[in-house]
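Folds abound. A case:
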Amino acid sequence: MTDSPVVSAQKLSLTFQTNDGPVHALSDVDLTINQGDFVSFIGPSGCGKTTFLRVMADLEQPTGGQITINGKTPQEARLNRDYGYVFQAPALLPWRTVAKNVALPLEIMGMERAEQARHIARTLKMVNLEGFEKKYPWQLSGGMQQRASIARALAFDADLLLMDEPFGALDEIVRDHLNEQLLKLWLETKKTIAFVTHSIPEAVYLSTRIVVMSPRPGRVIDVIESTLPAERPLDIRETPEFFKIAHRVREGLRAGHSYDEV
């Protein structure tokens, strides 16, 4: 990791105008994500975690403050293909094979076929889907579909990976396995990752930093620096250091009143 900022937000705010009046999604968010960071965003439903990710991706426009991606506006970063985006659902095209799904952004870029093939082979190897190139999404398990989605986001080799709760719909055993694989992938590629989750153990296990957010309007309650080693077997979740970090995350969530019933 370095101190080179990939994402920089200052006083970032976003208010949606609806028929029932304004909805304040984000309020005065200050945050820097440095090169090589694995940053998880955690908070209650509707706190603006996904909205913040979508602002980075130029899918939503802020109504106040500033944000840059590699020193550019989100629009410039999108046009320059500075990031890959992994959605909550795999969003694979059912009529395309795994290889053709991974190839989609490469085709849009106008990449030569031989070069496409090299990128597809490399990224499918990264996510352990070698041998499944000719399978269709319906022939894959949910975990394999999500791995194919991650391969597609990695295919054009962007340095920033935006991941919106990619494992939330999977069962705990599959989720643990994919957490291990994602951590290994991050260590191998040195990508910068912004990751949305509702799971405290997932956030603590994966992250170099954990951003705890308040209920709407989303504000940053705490930014927790992980003291865990980069190499993390799953059983690290049973250690005192892991419990210490998880406790601080819970305290941050309580401080933001995320457990209050509304």
